[in-house]
Amino acid sequence: MIDWMRRENLEPELEIAGRTLPIELSRNRRAKRLTLRLAPDGSAVRITLPQWCRSAEAIAFAHARAEWLTQQLAKVPQARDPAQEGVLFYRGEEVRIAWREDAPRKPKLAKGELGIGGPRDTLNRRLQRWLEAEALALFAADARDYCVRGGLAPTAARLTRARRRWGSCSSEGVLRLNWRLVQAPDLVRRSVVAHEVAHLVHFDHSPAFHALLDRLFEGDIEEANSWLGKHGRSLYAAFG
């Protein structure tokens, strides 16, 4: 038996780089093996395990991978405070936050500057709401584009605040897309929407799915995926 499977009575948490991270277990009936990952914001260690796997084995597996998790934690970007820094990211660009308490509360974007008023102590919350509203409008437009291109019936697009997934497609044909993608370049956001629209037809990642995705998406899917792989965690640095 593998050494890490012999270890019993380990705590469901890890000490990494001076921090105590909880180990969160999620059972999946489709899983065939243990899958270990760090939460995008570095707040927890997450393990997906098959139904037959014992929780103690999964926890031991995480402890055995402490060195790898330490390396991953070092890659997590430091938390950002847009209100304090005076900058947020929108569609791959830096936008300066022009706050003035007596200015109109409704945000107005013009020439790379977002004008906004109201109390400073609620500024980050209102900036996030603005980004979410922008994200929903962009996702809806993207979904319409790809449904027309694919000859598909229009579908609803909704926001998600998921910590692990960029998007999903339900069996009812509803797209759920991570609002944080509004901070990424258009190419990246649209690639995720195109991916989920392709799942309206193919609920797998078969050759037929990829052929449809290539037909739908106007850009380089590998370039978009590479950006997410390198910079995706940075989208979680602001707004908690």
In CATH terms, what is the architecture of the largest domain?
Answer: 2-Layer Sandwich
The residue ranges in which pLDDT falls below 50 over 5 or more consecutive positions are none
Helix content: 25-40%
Query: Topology as H/E string?
Result: HEEEEHHHEEEEHEEEHHH
How far apart are the termini? 41 Å
Average pLDDT works out at 91
> How many domains, as an integer?
2
Word description of this protein:
This protein is an alpha/beta fold and 240 residues long. The protein has two domains: 3-74, no CATH class; 82-236, Zincin-like (2-Layer Sandwich), CATH 3.30.2010.10. 37% of the residues lie in helices and 21% in strands. The chain is built from eight helices and eleven strands. The protein has helices at residues 3-6, 55-64, 66-74, 82-85, 123-150, 186-198, 207-216, 221-231; strands at residues 13-16, 19-27, 35-38, 45-49, 87-90, 93-99, 108-110, 113-116, 157-160, 167-169, 175-178. A four-stranded mixed β-sheet has the order 1-2-4-3. Strand 5 and strand 6 form a beta hairpin. The longest helix has 28 residues, at 123-150. The mean pLDDT is 91.
Short account of what is shown:
The chain has 240 residues and is of the alpha/beta class.
Key words describing this protein structure:
four-stranded mixed β-sheet, 37% helix, alpha/beta, Zincin-like, 8 helices
What is the topology?
Layout: H1 3-6, E1 13-16, E2 19-27, E3 35-38, E4 45-49, H2 55-64, H3 66-74, H4 82-85, E5 87-90, E6 93-99, E7 108-110, E8 113-116, H5 123-150, E9 157-160, E10 167-169, E11 175-178, H6 186-198, H7 207-216, H8 221-231
Parallel strand pairs: 2-4, 6-8, 9-11
Antiparallel strand pairs: 1-2, 3-4, 5-6, 7-8, 10-11
Helix pairs in contact: 5-6, 6-7, 6-8
